[in-house]
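Before relying on records like the one below, remember that each one covers exactly one chain. Contacts with other chains, cofactors or solvent are not represented anywhere in the record.
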Amino acid sequence: MTKTALLCAAALLLGSAPALAADGPTDPQIAHIAYTAGNIDVVAAKQALARSHNRAVRSFAQQMVRDHQAVNEKALALVKKLHVAPEDNATSQGLSKAASAELAKLARLKGAAFDREYVANEVAFHKTVNGALESTLIPSAKNGELKSLLETGLTLFREHQMHAEQVAKALK
C-alpha cells in the first residue's frame, strides 16, 4: 500500500473500530471486518497470480488465496451457526476503499515493479491487520468461538507477514 493508504487503513483498523461501540466493535462488526480483510487479501493475491511471473511471488499469492479463503469459510460457517449477520461498518468500508486504490495502483505496474509493490503491500497489510487483531478485534470479541477463530487467524497471519517479509527481502 502506499504510505498514505497504509496510514488510512491503520487508522481505520486501530482508531475507528473502538468508536463503533463504547467497548469496541460488536461481534457482528468484528466478523465483517475480519471477513473483509481476508477477502481483500484473496483479491490482491488473485491479481498477483494473474500478473506475476516470479515463482516466489506466485507461491506466496497461492498461499494467500488458500489460507484466507479457508479462514473466511470458517468465519462464514461460524456466523451461520451462531445466527449472526456480519455488520458492515466504517472500518470494513475504509479497508475496502484503501484496497481498491491499491489494486488500481498495482494494475498499472508490470514485472519486478509489480512484484515489489505487491509484496510490500502484503507486508504492510499483514502488519496492520495483525496489529488490529491483537489490540482491538480479539480483545473486543465477546463470543468465545469468534475469539478463538480470530486467535487462530492471528497465528496464521503472523506467519504470512514473516513469509511476505522474506519474499520482499529476496526481491530487493
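The chain has one domain: 3-171.
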